Amino acid sequence: MAHYSLSEEQKAFYHGQGYLINLPSVFSPAEMAQLNAELKNLEALLEPGEKMMAIREWHISSRWLYDVCTRPQILDYVEGILGPNFYMWGSQFFAKSPNSKETVAWHQDAYYWPLHPHNSVTIWLAFTDVNEDNGAMQIIPKSHKAGLITHTSNSGDSVLTLELEQGTFNEADAKSLILHAGQISLHDDAIVHGSPANQSDRWRNGLTVRYSGTNVKCDLTKAPQFKAYLVRGADEFNYNPPGVIPTEPFARLSKEHHIASTDEFKK
Ligand SMILES: O=C(O)CCC(=O)C(=O)O
């Protein structure tokens, strides 16, 4: 099987800027068309009133989703950042319907997560083409180097519970992560990021998947359902409860099983 590695330039860019794009596609257009068709099987399990965002941590119950989250090419890129030993623990769809006003407020993931030390990477897999028109994710380059900033309760159209106060970073520096369906971006757990509304007639949909080095320990008093799936290398720390790989192709997880089961870990 082909192995995809990050060049030294790409690694340096990620560590310096806090994100990475322009990687070879992980899924071809034909594979994406198939994945989008298969995704309907998960959507069919949503209850009335639930949105795509509720498809969260279903890699614990759905083998189909688990296999997407552990696609070897994705793991190869993550390995370029985290090194040989890491686990996967989180997944969530961030979808915006055509002309939806919903935004994702500026935030830092690490502020929400009871994980220490900070050594986690998120990949955002585009299920649709994403650009400025349909509300692509935006990041503030280098903001991961400034440490965690206090978040306050959000009051606008954001789907998140918290947001950064204006003036704590420079919004003019924002960069949109433009991707074709089947491509991924990578971002650091402390980078300031968010996304504006979808002003287009197209859907905007992406799957976030979270990975952490095996040296990262979750505070289980804050996230009792946390499960670590060792996806590369060896776990020489054994800090976290291991996950069991699901067998059902399409099955849902109850809300109570979301890893984000406490206020501190809500996102
Ligand atoms: O898709 C988005 O707009 C936001 C995703 C996000 O916040 C994340 O991947 O951590």
TrEMBL record:
GO molecular function: 2-oxoglutarate-dependent dioxygenase activity; iron ion binding
Stored Pfam families: PhyH
SUPFAM superfamilies per the UniProt record, alphabetical: Clavaminate synthase-like (SSF51197)
Keywords in alphabetical order: Dioxygenase, Oxidoreductase
This protein's record includes keyword Oxidoreductase: yes
InterPro entries (alphabetical): Phytyl_CoA_dOase-like
Source organism superkingdom: Bacteria
Protein name stated in the entry: Phytanoyl-CoA dioxygenase family protein
Lineage: Bacteria, Bacillati, Bacillota, Bacilli, Bacillales
